[in-house]
Specification:
six-stranded parallel β-sheet, globular, 14 helices, 10 strands, alpha/beta, TIM Barrel, two-stranded parallel sheet, lyase, 4-hydroxy-tetrahydrodipicolinate synthase activity
């Protein structure tokens, strides 16, 4: 082949590619211009309840952080104060025991006594409904808490997978056993497990919802979260899906159809309640975004400050008149449960405290007016 022919062919190929690129770019440009705007796609519309069943079991249900005395004992008086704080904040609900520290680092007797304290306290609350956590290492362990909860008649219960569950059939039998005890209250399933346990498939969650009329409530936090949320919401048997994961995805997930939030964020209970009201009404999306963005600014302190849910949040609970101490129990090496409690007092530097308070200042316009007095 002659050199001039080779050059000619290369020139022709280059021209063809450039032309194709121009067409593609033009098509892309036209598509971008004609596509719906972000405001249209992500428009905040009022959250509508999927089911009329158990209407009190909707909205934010913050998990109570377990309070401890200076000696590391559970402070049941402060636990009751947390419930009153949630009610003062007009939170739709509260949950305990459910976070890892309260599920794994408390004795059986401590959990049963705490459930009794909260059941007694909740009788005098105006707004906040009580949801009790009922789960265990295995079915027998879980049933101890389920039978105790049945006697206390909370608004609802929540249960995570058993530590010993290895298959979907294990989970199926575990929650069927729970259904034989809790027949009146709604049952929410938390989808994440600990200690190597498995998460329930969306198919199993839908199956249980079809089998038991008080099931079909899900705290969805297993990956991939968004596809799982969409899959659950496609089923008419699912009565309600709650967001989780520290509230980081709550704003987006509420537009997909979630109807509440479960997370250990009691320090912001009044903010969560106001966000929920805006989600329900759809009236002021600008305020909703503003409030939510300032809330997530607080959450990001976990990247710079000690701990997370039991870290700087303990300072806020103390600052807001709920906690007396910042004492926690800790896990052992590799997340193991120690034979004896490991007690730690949270220590923050003046610089860290200043950063917490500087960020919290932006939330003050949204806080409930007045001061919580216990």
């Amino acid at each position: 082949m002659k050199n001039e022919d080779l050059v000619s062919r290369r020139t022709l190929l280059k021209s063809t590619l450039l032309g194709a690129s121009s067409v593609a770019a033009g098509t892309l440009s036209q598509t971008s211009i004609s596509a719906a705007s972000p405001e249209t796609i992500a428009k905040q519309v009022p959250v509508k309840l999927r089911s009329p069943d158990y209407p009190r079991f909707r909205g934010p249900f913050p998990i109570l952080s377990t309070p401890f005395t200076n000696s590391g004992e559970v402070d049941f008086e402060v636990l009751a104060r947390e419930a009153r704080f949630a009610d003062w904040c007009e939170s739709p609900g509260m949950i305990w025991p459910q976070s890892n520290d309260s599920v794994d680092l408390l004795t059986q007797n401590e959990k049963l006594e705490g459930m009794e304290v909260l059941a007694k306290t909740s009788r005098n609350l105006k707004t906040t409904a009580l949801c009790l956590g009922v789960q265990g290492e295995d079915t027998d362990d879980m049933l101890v808490y389920a039978k105790h909860a049945r006697k206390l008649s909370p608004t609802a219960v929540i249960s995570r997978p058993p530590d010993t569950g290895k298959t979907q059939e294990d989970l199926r039998q575990y929650w069927r056993a729970l259904a034989s005890v809790i027949t009146e209250q709604p049952v929410m399933i938390q989808t994440t497990a600990r200690r190597g346990g498995v998460s329930p498939s969306t198919e199993l969650l839908i199956e249980l919802a079809e089998e038991f009329p008080n099931f079909g409530y899900v705290k969805e936090e297993s990956n991939p979260v968004i596809p799982r949320v969409r899959k659950l919401l496609e089923s008419p048997s699912i009565r309600s899906v709650f967001s989780a994961r520290g509230a980081y995805g709550w704003l987006y997930e509420s537009r997909l159809g979630t109807e509440g939030l479960v997370t250990e964020r009691l320090a912001y209970a009044d903010i969560l309640a106001k966000i929920w009201k805006l989600m329900r009404s759809g009236d002021d999306p600008a305020m909703l975004k503003d409030m939510y963005s300032k809330l997530t600014l607080m959450f990001n302190l976990s990247q710079t400050h000690p701990g997370n849910l039991r870290g700087y949040s303990l300072y806020l609970l103390k600052m807001r008149g709920v906690f007396n101490t910042m004492i926690s129990r800790q896990y052992g090496p590799n997340g193991t449960t120690p034979a004896q409690p490991i007690i730690r007092d949270l220590t923050l530097s003046n610089e860290e405290i200043a950063e917490i308070e500087w960020r919290f200042e932006s939330l003050k316009p949204f806080l409930k007016p007045g001061k919580f007095t216990g």
